[in-house]
Design brief:
Layout lengths: L16 H21 L8 E4 L6 H9 L4 E4 L2 H10 L7 E4 L8 H7 L2 E5 L2 H14 L3 E6 L16 H8 L5 E7 L8 H21 L8 E3 L6 H6 L4 E4 L1 H4 L6 H4 L8
Parallel strand pairs: 1-8, 2-3, 3-4, 4-5, 5-6, 6-7
Helix pairs in contact: 4-5
The structure holds pyridoxal-5'-phosphate.
């Protein structure tokens, strides 16, 4: 399988434990190779397999292949899967897509982390619900590093102010920043998005009240994770290179402007 064809959806569907294992091994090899090019330790990198659109049977195969955390873009899809697979007690869920306030109640029931925080109303709602349950939630602030109007996330120059306001919500544990780079096969357009997120994280460590809580950089997907790793990613989110191409177009997951769900 040629993983360099990421943008053309050339990934074959993995439909057995062996195929998923092989894809995972392949991704991990490439992660390690990307680390070597910049002298990083692969052990400081986290891979979140993204299972949106993947059905229960194949998710169970991924579990057998060793996956213990999965990323999902839509909270209700994730919630349904969590309910169906509650027997897999050590399987954790990361919500990586836009959240509407009225769906926050689902997130607090089962998610370990929420990576697409970009507005205070959602922060406030999550915090209130978490307080009621005596729980906390790891959060990443999503930043729009590509200046594309269709991308969600805060503008880079809004993030410091947002971080200051987040201190009011003590059940949200700030872990770092998340972004989607420009969708382009041209490295010269993709790499600056990742570098911008890293620079912003470094600035927040100095200037935000949470300081070093801004540790993580969640960036890099099937088509660009090696670049992201070279630019300092600590978490990458990889779907198609592990499970195969999705049938639904990305516009279903990243509608322009507000999410439709
Ligand atoms: C779908 C998705 C990914 C993974 O994309 P792939 O091309 O499947 O690797 C990563 N991040 C977010 C926010 C996503 O929605």
């Amino acid at each position: 399988m040629n993983h360099s064809t990421a943008r053309t959806n050339g990934y074959q569907t993995a439909s057995s434990v062996a195929e998923i294992s092989a894809n995972l091994a392949h991704v991990k090899e490439r992660m390690a190779a990307a680390c070597r090019t910049v002298g990083r330790d692969p052990n400081e990198l986290r891979l979140i397999p993204v299972s949106k659109t993947v059905d229960e049977a194949r998710i169970r195969m991924a579990y057998q292949a060793g996956c213990r955390i999965l990323g999902e873009n839509k909270v209700q899809e994730a919630y349904g899967k969590w309910q169906a697979m509650s027997d897999l007690e050590d399987l954790e869920w990361a919500i990586i897509g836009h959240l509407q306030t009225n769906k926050a109640k689902f997130v607090v029931r089962f998610a370990k982390e929420f990576q697409a925080l970009d507005n205070l109303r959602v922060a406030q709602t999550l915090d209130r619900l978490l307080q009621q349950q005596g729980r906390s939630l790891d959060v990443f602030v999503q930043v729009n590093t590509s200046a594309e109007p269709s991308k969600l996330g805060l503008d880079p120059d809004q993030v410091l102010d947002f971080a200051k306001q987040l201190t009011s919500y003590s059940s949200l544990r700030v872990r770092g920043l998340m972004t989607l780079a420009l969708f382009s096969s041209d490295e010269a357009h993709v790499r600056p998005c990742f570098a911008m997120l890293r620079n912003l994280r470094d600035q927040l460590r100095q200037e935000a009240p949470q300081g070093d809580d801004f540790a993580e950089l969640s960036m890099g997907m099937s088509g660009d994770y090696e670049l992201a790793i070279q630019e300092g990613a600590t978490t990458i989110r990889v779907g198609q290179a592990i499970f195969g191409a999705r049938n639904l177009p990305d516009s279903y997951y990243w509608p322009d402007g507000q999410a439709r769900s």
